[in-house]
Write a structure and sequence with these properties.
About 45% of the residues lie in helices and about 15% in strands. With about 240 residues, the chain is of the alpha/beta class. A 7-stranded mixed sheet has the order 1-8-7-2-5-3-4, with helices on both faces.
Length: about 240
C-alpha cells in the first residue's frame, strides 16, 4: 500500500514534475513474469525515477548503508527504503555477495522485476564503468531476460554530493530484452559470467552514449582520491 501511494500519489507526480522524463523503449519491459532491469547508475534519483516510469513494481538490491544510518534520520531512511520494497545488500563481497545473490533470486522466483546496477555503485564522474558479474549470475541461474536501461541526464541533475536535484528534463531508455539460454549451466564459470556481464554493459553503453572505462567504479574513485591526496600533500 505504501509503495502504491508513493508511486502514484506522492513521489511519482513530484518526480515527473521535476524531471519531465522522456521515455523510450518502455515496451521492452515485460508486463508479466520475472525479469531483470540492469541500468547505469549516475544519481541517487535513479532509485526512484525509473521505478516510477515502469508500470510494474521494481525491487532493487540497495546498499546496506541506507538501512543502518544513525539517529532519527537513519531510522526514517531505513523505514522509507523498506516501505518501497528495497532489499539491503552488504557489498563487502564473499559471503555477503552470496547473500545478495540469494535475495535477488528470491525476488525473481516470485515472478517479479528486479532492478540492479551492474557497476555496483554510482558513477562519480558520469562515465560508465566495468560491470560486476552478479547480474550475470542472477540472469543465468534464474534464466530470465535482462532489459538494459540507460538513465541520461540524472548525473547533471543530481551528481554525487548534491542533496536536492535540479529541475531539468532527463531521458530513460530501455533496450530489447537480452536472453542467455546459451549459457545455461555455466553460471559457475567465470569466463561465461564475464562474457554475459560485458554483453549487458555493451548494450547499456549503446543506449547511454557514455564514455566507457574498463575499471571498477569504486577502484577508479579510490585511485583518483589517492592521487589527489598526493597532489595536495606535495603542494
Amino acid at each position: 500500500m505504501f509503495y502504491q501511494v508513493l508511486k502514484y500519489v506522492i513521489l511519482g507526480p513530484l518526480l515527473r514534475l521535476i524531471f519531465r522524463p522522456r521515455v523510450e523503449g518502455l515496451e521492452h519491459v515485460p508486463l508479466q513474469g520475472p525479469a531483470i532491469i540492469a541500468g547505469n547508475h549516475l544519481s541517487f534519483s535513479d532509485h526512484f525515477v525509473m521505478p516510477v516510469i515502469v508500470p510494474r513494481r521494481v525491487t532493487f538490491l540497495a546498499k546496506a548503508e541506507y538501512f543502518t544510518g544513525p539517529g532519527l534520520r537513519g531510522r526514517l531512511t531505513a523505514a522509507f527504503f523498506r516501505g518501497i520494497g528495497q532489499i539491503p545488500v552488504d557489498r563487502s563481497g564473499g559471503k555477503a555477495a552470496l547473500a545478495a545473490l540469494r535475495s535477488g533470486l528470491a525476488v525473481l522466483r516470485k515472478g517479479r522485476v528486479l532492478g540492479i546496477y551492474p557497476e555496483g555503485t554510482r558513477s562519480h564522474d558520469g562515465r560508465l564503468y566495468k560491470g560486476r558479474t552478479g547480474v550475470a549470475a542472477l540472469a543465468m541461474k534464474a534464466q530470465v531476460p535482462v532489459i538494459p536501461c540507460a538513465m541520461i541526464g540524472t548525473f547533471e541533475a543530481q551528481p554525487t554530493g548534491r542533496r536536492l536535484p535540479r529541475a531539468m528534463r532527463i531521458t530513460i531508455r530501455f533496450g530489447k530484452p537480452l536472453e542467455f539460454s546459451r549459457f545455461a549451466g555455466l553460471d559457475g564459470e567465470h569466463a561465461a559470467l564475464r562474457a554475459v556481464t560485458d554483453e549487458i554493459m555493451y548494450e547499456i553503453l549503446q543506449l547511454s552514449g557514455q564514455e566507457y572505462v574498463d575499471e571498477y567504479a569504486n577502484e577508479a574513485k579510490a585511485r583518483q582520491q589517492s592521487q589527489w591526496g598526493l597532489v595536495r600533500r606535495f603542494r
